[in-house]
Amino acid sequence: MADYAAMYKRLFNSATDAIAILQKAQQDTEEMYMASPEPDIRVLEPKKPEDDE
Questions:
Q1: Cα distances (angstroms) measured from residue 52 to each of 44, 48, 49
Q2: 38-43 contact pairs (CB < 8 A, 24+)
Q3: How far apart are CA 34 and CA 44, in angstroms?
Q4: Is the pTM of this model over 0.90?
């Protein structure tokens, strides 16, 4: 007969490990974003047609 308790514990531990890995990756990428320089954002005005001037 299958040892369901052992199977559940293994699945639970693996799922918990996967969640921890994903949380760490999210924290790392958030830190990378916060450490990056501010982007150079500019508002571009559309060119006016020459015949409207």
A1: 19, 7, 6
A2: none
A3: 26
A4: no
